[in-house]
Amino acid sequence: MTSAFDYRRPVATDGDAILNALPNPVLLIAPDGRIVDANMAAESFFEISTQFLRRQSLKELVPFGSPLLALIDQVRAAGSPVNEYKVDLGTPRIGGDRQVDLHVAPLTERPGHIVVMLQERTIADKMDRQLTHRSAARSVIALAAMLAHEIKNPLSGIRGAAQLLEQQASSEDRLLTRLICDEADRIVTLVDRMEVFGDDRPVARGPVNIHSVLDHVKRLAQSGFARNVRFIEEYDPSLPPVLANQDQLIQVFLNLVKNAAEAVADLGSDAEIQLTTAFRPGVRLSVPGKKSRVSLPLEFCVKDNGSGVPEDLLPNLFDPFVTTKQTGSGLGLALVAKIVGDHGGIIECESQPRKTIFRVLMPMYSAAKQHDHSNRDGVPGTPSPASQGAR
Questions:
Q1: Which of 24-33, 130-139, 304-313 has the least mean pLDDT?
Q2: Domain that residue 89 falls in
Q3: 93 and 237 housed in the same domain
Q4: According to the 3-state scheme, what is the secondary structure of the chain?
């Protein structure tokens, strides 16, 4: 029987097509550690073509002393498959944090050859973290409702008293009364922003062309805060519509692009923001309380070449009051995560110096889903109060 990995075959076989259809990277390793063949997913993972991979030793691709190398030796000696979980294969070239599950097995048809399959953990971890983000958002909803009721009314009294004192105060004391008024106004503004989290009314959704949304956001950015930033667009023109509220999607990506523009502000003419769209079949999310799994095949990314997000902030970046800005409130990304979560999607950030990616995974539009949504939420296409208040 001919191996599907046999690189000497003049034409592709069904085995080649099957391997290239797999979403997980697969490698065939020779007894001397040389890579004999790889599928298309492996090309994407290592960011190297198959032709170049065949000229490489596995040691040149993975970190020094990687457990993968010892695992291959173990499989070759025992002659039986072995699995290993949460192994870091990150390198500066492909990214510093690339955790994978390893499935290593001998290829009986070719003695000494080993088949390695990598299953990247990022998607599963993103989904776990996203559920945590939603839990944090629910906590903020309760906090926002309490703040609106318990804080805004006393603040009005404090501000009014300060204004009365200002009328009879000396010039020096007026500075203090003005400080009280300004700080009271600042707290009210913060509470007003938090009240958005408490608005859980249904949002009217329908088919939205994501490229129209991104083009609109880009025009807004280039006419204002990102006037001197170079934009790069890599769009999949065949992408189906996304099931969403257009106004809220504009808010999401305007916030992400604004953050990216602030991250590259000190780069001058080298400042760069990249907008990408792609179809990623196979990404499905298990929602608590439901038997069905939600498909999230639409991927939208905002990338920048700024200094990156500090590693210690990454796990909690979408939590309220977490920010990298000295004057930031830490509510912008929390609101983005809430909107994406309300749409049934997930958002995640990957960051290293000169390469930060905010990735949004969303469900695509289908007429059946929209009919069901219309029966629950009202007339489709009509902006709800929640969508209007979020702008």
A1: 130-139
A2: 14-120
A3: no
A4: CCCCCCCCCCCCCHHHHHHHHCCCCEEEECCCCEEEEECHHHHHHHCCCHHHHCCCEHHHCCCCCCHHHHHHHHHHHHCCCEEEEEEECCECCCECCCEEEEEEEECCCCCCCEEEEEEECHHHHHHHHHHHHHHHHHHHHHHHHHHHHHCHHHHHHHHHHHHHHHHHCCHHHHHHHHHHHHHHHHHHHHHHHHHHHHCCCCCCCEEECHHHHHHHHHHHHHCCCCCCCEEEEECCCCCCCEEECHHHHHHHHHHHHHHHHHHCHHHHHHCEEEEEEEECCCCEEECCCCCCEEECCEEEEEEECCCCCCCCCHHHCCCCCCCCCCCCCCCHHHHHHHHHHHCCCEEEEEEECCEEEEEEEECECCHHHHHHHHHHHCCCCCCCHHHHHCC
